[in-house]
């Protein structure tokens, strides 16, 4: 096996693992959230604290979701590479939006997951004094309003899915979930963000 063949083999394996690990990690991430089946969206910092305070598993899962950002980028780039000729614009535009959205996802996880985990190290009386700051974070104040850019991730993936559907690079039945899944996520994110 030549050096180029080994590199291509590693790329294929890495891409395949990205396609498998990303949805599995995010499914687990959603599953460990407290009150998963509740349709009430948390808008009060006190309720938010009850979800994450002392919940080391939730903090760990959020960090693994942060580590999924490179996997998302690998997936978007791979789909872009698949979309050639008449699907090239779908690949390029979709990939650009998805990568930008993935970057916002990393910022979102850093701000709303890693920062509260740092607050966990404070004594209870000092932690309680952080509630106004946590409320400002939860409300998306300041530059946290940029988290709306997270919508670009599923929109970009859906655009790539449309490109795959139209070009038939992969069977159409495989491209349909790549369109529907991200669009469902867009609706969910709009509902969550609009409630703040």
Write the layout of secondary structure elements.
Blueprint: H1 3-31, H2 45-52, H3 56-66, H4 69-82, H5 88-119, H6 124-129, H7 131-138, H8 152-167, H9 172-194
Description of the molecule:
By secondary structure, the protein is mainly alpha-helical. It has one domain (3-31, 45-194). The chain has nine helices and no strands. It has helices at residues 3-31, 45-52, 56-66, 69-82, 88-119, 124-129, 131-138, 152-167, 172-194. The mean pLDDT is 86.
Task: Provide a brief overview of the structure.
The protein is built from 9 helices and no strands. The chain is mainly α.
Number of strands: 0
Percent of residues in beta strands: under 5%
Describe the biggest sheet? none
The dominant shape is elongated
Strand-pairing-aware structural class: mainly alpha
Proportion of helical residues: over 70%
Q: How far apart lie the N and C ends?
A: 56 Å
Tally of individual domains: 1
Rg: 19 Å
Q: What attributes characterize this protein structure?
A:
single chain, 196 residues, mainly alpha, 9 helices
């Amino acid at each position: 096996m030549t050096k180029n063949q080994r590199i291509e083999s590693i790329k294929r394996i890495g891409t395949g693992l990205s396609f498998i690990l990303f949805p599995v990690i995010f499914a687990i991430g959603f599953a460990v959230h407290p009150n998963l089946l509740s349709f009430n969206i948390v808008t009060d910092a006190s309720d938010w604290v009850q979800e994450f305070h002392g919940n080391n598993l939730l903090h760990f899962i959020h960090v693994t979701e942060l580590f999924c950002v490179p996997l998302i980028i690998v997936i978007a780039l791979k789909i872009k590479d698949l979309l050639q000729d008449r699907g090239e614009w779908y690949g390029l535009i979709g990939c650009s939006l998805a990568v930008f959205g993935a970057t916002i996802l990393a910022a979102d996880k850093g701000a709303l997951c890693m920062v509260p985990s740092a607050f966990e190290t404070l004594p209870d009386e000092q932690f309680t004094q952080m509630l106004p700051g946590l409320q400002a974070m939860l409300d998306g104040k300041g530059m946290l309003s940029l988290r709306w850019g997270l919508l670009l991730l599923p929109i970009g993936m859906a655009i790539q899915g449309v490109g795959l559907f139209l070009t038939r690079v992969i069977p159409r039945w495989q491209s349909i979930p790549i369109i529907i899944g991200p669009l469902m996520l867009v609706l969910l994110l709009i509902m969550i963000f609009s409630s703040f």
